[in-house]
Amino acid sequence: MKITRLSLIAICLLISQVSTAVEPNFLSLNVAASVKVMSFNIRYNNPNDGDYAWPNRKAMVASVVNFNAADLVGMQEVLRGQLTELETLLPDHSWYGVGRNNGRINGENTGEFAPIFIGKIVCSF
User: Fold this and answer.
1) pLDDT confidence of residue 101
2) Helices and strands (DSSP H and E) totals, the chain
Protein backbone atom coordinates (compact mmCIF):
# COMPACT_ATOMS: atom_id res chain seq x y z
CA MET A 1 0.00 0.00 0.00
CA LYS A 2 2.87 2.37 0.74
CA ILE A 3 4.05 2.17 -2.88
CA THR A 4 0.55 2.92 -4.19
CA ARG A 5 0.18 6.02 -2.02
CA LEU A 6 3.67 7.16 -2.93
CA SER A 7 2.95 6.66 -6.64
CA LEU A 8 -0.30 8.61 -6.36
CA ILE A 9 1.48 11.50 -4.66
CA ALA A 10 4.23 11.41 -7.30
CA ILE A 11 1.68 11.59 -10.12
CA CYS A 12 -0.06 14.56 -8.51
CA LEU A 13 3.25 16.35 -8.08
CA LEU A 14 4.25 15.52 -11.64
CA ILE A 15 1.01 16.97 -13.00
CA SER A 16 1.46 20.18 -11.03
CA GLN A 17 5.13 20.57 -12.01
CA VAL A 18 4.79 19.61 -15.67
CA SER A 19 1.90 22.01 -16.19
CA THR A 20 4.17 24.95 -15.39
CA ALA A 21 7.53 23.68 -16.65
CA VAL A 22 7.08 22.46 -20.23
CA GLU A 23 6.32 24.01 -23.55
CA PRO A 24 2.62 23.85 -24.47
CA ASN A 25 3.04 21.40 -27.37
CA PHE A 26 5.19 18.88 -25.49
CA LEU A 27 2.51 17.46 -23.22
CA SER A 28 -1.21 17.97 -23.38
CA LEU A 29 -2.57 18.78 -19.93
CA ASN A 30 -5.97 20.05 -18.98
CA VAL A 31 -5.23 21.34 -15.50
CA ALA A 32 -8.33 22.07 -13.49
CA ALA A 33 -8.55 24.00 -10.26
CA SER A 34 -8.64 20.65 -8.47
CA VAL A 35 -7.92 16.99 -9.08
CA LYS A 36 -10.29 14.42 -7.61
CA VAL A 37 -8.46 11.46 -6.10
CA MET A 38 -10.05 8.33 -4.70
CA SER A 39 -9.02 4.93 -3.43
CA PHE A 40 -11.08 1.80 -4.04
CA ASN A 41 -10.48 -1.72 -2.76
CA ILE A 42 -12.58 -3.61 -5.31
CA ARG A 43 -11.91 -7.06 -3.75
CA TYR A 44 -10.46 -9.81 -5.90
CA ASN A 45 -12.69 -12.03 -8.04
CA ASN A 46 -13.77 -14.83 -5.69
CA PRO A 47 -16.63 -16.95 -7.13
CA ASN A 48 -17.46 -18.09 -3.57
CA ASP A 49 -18.65 -14.56 -2.73
CA GLY A 50 -22.15 -15.45 -3.98
CA ASP A 51 -24.21 -12.31 -4.55
CA TYR A 52 -21.06 -10.22 -4.00
CA ALA A 53 -18.98 -12.03 -6.65
CA TRP A 54 -17.19 -9.83 -9.19
CA PRO A 55 -19.71 -10.31 -12.04
CA ASN A 56 -22.34 -8.77 -9.75
CA ARG A 57 -20.08 -5.91 -8.60
CA LYS A 58 -18.19 -4.74 -11.69
CA ALA A 59 -20.87 -2.36 -12.98
CA MET A 60 -21.16 -0.83 -9.50
CA VAL A 61 -17.39 -0.27 -9.31
CA ALA A 62 -17.39 1.57 -12.65
CA SER A 63 -20.49 3.51 -11.62
CA VAL A 64 -18.87 4.72 -8.39
CA VAL A 65 -15.74 5.90 -10.23
CA ASN A 66 -17.78 7.64 -12.92
CA PHE A 67 -20.28 9.17 -10.48
CA ASN A 68 -17.48 10.69 -8.42
CA ALA A 69 -15.75 11.95 -11.58
CA ALA A 70 -12.45 10.79 -10.12
CA ASP A 71 -9.34 11.93 -11.99
CA LEU A 72 -6.96 9.56 -10.19
CA VAL A 73 -8.14 6.26 -8.72
CA GLY A 74 -5.88 3.97 -6.72
CA MET A 75 -7.36 0.46 -6.66
CA GLN A 76 -6.43 -2.57 -4.60
CA GLU A 77 -6.95 -6.36 -4.99
CA VAL A 78 -7.43 -6.15 -8.77
CA LEU A 79 -6.80 -9.40 -10.64
CA ARG A 80 -5.77 -9.35 -14.32
CA GLY A 81 -9.23 -10.38 -15.56
CA GLN A 82 -10.85 -7.63 -13.50
CA LEU A 83 -8.34 -5.13 -14.86
CA THR A 84 -9.23 -6.10 -18.43
CA GLU A 85 -12.93 -5.58 -17.68
CA LEU A 86 -12.27 -2.25 -15.96
CA GLU A 87 -10.42 -1.03 -19.07
CA THR A 88 -13.68 -1.51 -20.97
CA LEU A 89 -15.93 -0.16 -18.20
CA LEU A 90 -13.79 2.98 -17.67
CA PRO A 91 -13.00 4.16 -21.23
CA ASP A 92 -12.16 7.69 -20.03
CA HIS A 93 -9.29 6.36 -17.90
CA SER A 94 -5.91 4.80 -18.62
CA TRP A 95 -4.10 2.79 -15.97
CA TYR A 96 -0.59 2.11 -14.77
CA GLY A 97 0.58 -0.80 -12.60
CA VAL A 98 2.13 -4.26 -12.48
CA GLY A 99 1.07 -7.50 -10.87
CA ARG A 100 2.28 -8.37 -7.40
CA ASN A 101 4.36 -11.32 -8.62
CA ASN A 102 7.09 -8.93 -9.73
CA GLY A 103 5.36 -8.15 -12.95
CA ARG A 104 5.61 -11.17 -15.21
CA ILE A 105 5.32 -14.94 -15.22
CA ASN A 106 5.44 -16.57 -18.67
CA GLY A 107 5.19 -13.12 -20.23
CA GLU A 108 1.97 -12.24 -18.38
CA ASN A 109 1.41 -9.76 -15.58
CA THR A 110 0.09 -11.87 -12.71
CA GLY A 111 -1.06 -11.64 -9.13
CA GLU A 112 -3.08 -8.87 -7.60
CA PHE A 113 -2.59 -5.41 -9.03
CA ALA A 114 -2.79 -2.06 -7.26
CA PRO A 115 -3.28 -0.01 -10.45
CA ILE A 116 -3.68 3.71 -10.67
CA PHE A 117 -6.39 4.77 -13.10
CA ILE A 118 -5.73 8.19 -14.60
CA GLY A 119 -8.46 10.22 -16.25
CA LYS A 120 -7.63 10.86 -19.91
CA ILE A 121 -9.09 14.36 -19.59
CA VAL A 122 -6.59 15.22 -16.84
CA CYS A 123 -3.46 13.94 -18.55
CA SER A 124 -2.67 12.54 -21.98
CA PHE A 125 0.81 11.62 -23.11
Assistant:
1) 75
2) 3, 8
